[in-house]
UniProtKB/TrEMBL annotation:
Chief location: cytoplasm
Cofactors named for this entry: FAD
Domain Pyridine nucleotide-disulphide oxidoreductase dimerisation residues, every copy: 355-464
Cofactor note: Binds 1 FAD per subunit.
The protein's name: Dihydrolipoyl dehydrogenase
Pfam (any one): Pyr_redox_2
UniProt similarity note: Belongs to the class-I pyridine nucleotide-disulfide oxidoreductase family.
Reaction catalysis annotation: N(6)-[(R)-dihydrolipoyl]-L-lysyl-[protein] + NAD(+) = N(6)-[(R)-lipoyl]-L-lysyl-[protein] + NADH + H(+)
Keyword Ligase tagged: no
Organism: Candidatus Competibacter phosphatis
Keywords: Cytoplasm, Disulfide bond, FAD, Flavoprotein, NAD, Oxidoreductase, Redox-active center
Extra remark: The active site is a redox-active disulfide bond.
Length: 477
């Protein structure tokens, strides 16, 4: 007879492992099914994010920024460094060490909280049963009062550029995180978040990076004033970003990969030593449920859920990248907490209007809430407050006085509607507005809040003041 749990979570990434831990904290007997095998050939928790996504990419972004700063940007501080050398093997070893620390840490958290890790591939069967297929091909079945599907996402493939990470010539994000030498030239198909972050890493380390983006608008999801500023900054750094460029085909040559593409001027071709395909991600729902389970899917492979992340099957939930909404690790984690608390009979909460977005380039880009173009489209009256980091003392001291804070508030109620930042530590600064929006704050609330001096947060304060023409350290217009 199959063992029965209160909750079985399928997937051990940020959505799944957080859901499992929270379920266990609430006194539910919980198991988590995860099949990931890491670079050492060992089973690992953490999913894409910790193993080949968020954590290794941010680690390389930090390392490459340190290298570039020493090599190119520290003279203005009166510090002269000679003989700076890149040890890529050591850089990659550091990345791998950090990944192991964090993924092993989740295993320790599972033990501390009493979560049972069932290693293998999980598939939902009928009547809330879950089949686990192990590495050796054997399988067994467990039952659960509740099942949470959290199998994440995978890179989108395009026929024009078939990925083969093992060969290392045409790669996806996983392959681009594991180059063992800096390519002389790197082509990137797609100028979204992943393409920009990984393109920035290899650009800083010495590669000539060309980004081919099919759409005409750069960072279409971001506020377009911020996006235009970002495009200028990235081009200054040497990233060759070509918008309105559609890749038609690729072919491998003795020199690398020849890419055939089309833009408004016609057909072109260019040869790259390496090619990164980063055109987005899709839900990882292949083979997640047996047909007899009757699980309902929506368009593009997403699992259909209600506002509480419950599927069409009572007691079966889905969270994270497999459901509607942004594919962000923190969104999936909070959905996991919400579902765990609902299962335990509590009131789960998640404010989808206050989910922060971050791009970890230099300068960083972050936002929360509505963009100006969305407010115009929806006919919502608004006021704008802005403040440039060029007028912020801390940013100047850091030699990082580029970009701005843009705050949007309702023209009649003054409720905060959104905040958009390009500049130093935007990923940290945005959290002030996330918290403010969670508590239904107004721009006046931020304007009346004391901010320490000198700090980058003063730019947030000044942008809030600027909403009503009261900025103190810029000329109000």
């Amino acid at each position: 007879m199959a063992k029965t749990y209160d909750v079985v979570v399928i997937g051990g990434g940020p959505a799944g492992y957080v859901a499992a831990i929270r379920c266990a904290q609430l006194g539910l007997e919980t198991a988590c099914v995860e099949q990931w095998i890491n670079f050492k050939g060992d089973p690992a928790l953490g999913g894409t994010c910790l193993n080949v996504g968020c954590i290794p990419s941010k680690t390389l972004l930090e390392s490459s920024e340190q290298y570039h700063h020493l090599k190119e940007g520290i003279d203005s501080h009166g510090i002269h460094v000679e003989g700076v050398k890149l040890d890529l093997d050591r850089m990659m070893a550091r990345k791998e060490d950090i990944v192991l620390q964090l993924t092993n840490g989740i295993g320790a958290l599972f033990k501390a909280n009493g979560v049972e890790w069932l290693q293998g591939h999980g598939k939902l069967l009928a009547d809330r049963q879950v089949e686990i297929t192990h590495r050796d091909g054997s399988s067994d079945v467990v039952s659960a009062d509740n099942v949470i599907i959290a199998t994440g996402s995978v890179p989108i493939d395009i026929g024009a550029a078939p990925v083969d990470n093992a060969e290392g010539l045409i790669v996806d994000s996983t392959g681009a995180l594991d180059f063992r030498q800096v390519p002389e030239t790197l082509g990137v198909i797609g100028a979204g978040v992943i393409g920009l972050e990984l393109g920035s890493v290899w650009n800083r380390l010495g590669a000539k990076v060309v980004m081919l983006e099919a759409v005409e608008d750069f960072l279409a999801l971001a506020d377009q004033q911020i996006a235009r500023d970002a495009l200028r900054q990235f081009k200054k750094q040497g990233l060759d970003i070509r918008l309105g460029t559609r890749v038609i085909a690729t072919e491998k040559t003795g020199d690398g990969v020849k890419v055939h593409f089309k833009d408004k001027d016609g057909d072109h071709e260019i040869v790259f030593e390496k090619l990164l395909v980063s055109v987005g991600r899709r839900p990882n729902t292949d083979d997640v449920a047996a047909p007899e389970s009757d699980l309902l899917f929506g368009e593009r492979g997403f699992i259909h859920v209600d506002e509480h992340c419950e599927t069409n099957l009572p007691g079966v939930y889905a969270i994270g990248d497999v459901v509607r909404g942004p594919m962000l690790a923190h969104k999936g984690s909070e959905e996991g907490v919400m579902v765990a608390e609902i299962i335990a009979g509590q009131h789960g909460h998640l404010n989808y209007d206050a989910i922060p977005w971050v791009i970890y380039t230099d300068p960083e880009i972050a936002w929360v809430g509505k963009t100006e173009q969305a407010l115009k489209t929806e006919g919502i009256p608004y006021k704008i407050g802005t403040f440039p980091f060029s007028a912020n003392g801390r940013a100047k001291a850091m030699d990082a006085a580029v970009g701005m804070v843009k705050m949007l508030a309702h023209a009649e109620t003054d409720a905060l509607l959104g905040c958009h930042i390009i500049g130093p530590y935007a990923s940290e600064l945005i959290q002030e507005t996330v918290l403010a929006m969670e508590f239904n704050a107004s721009s006046e609330d931020l304007a009346r809040t004391i901010h320490g001096h000198p700090t980058l947060y003063e730019a947030m304060h000044e942008a809030a003041l600027s909403v009503h023409g009261r900025a103190l350290h810029k000329i109000n217009t």
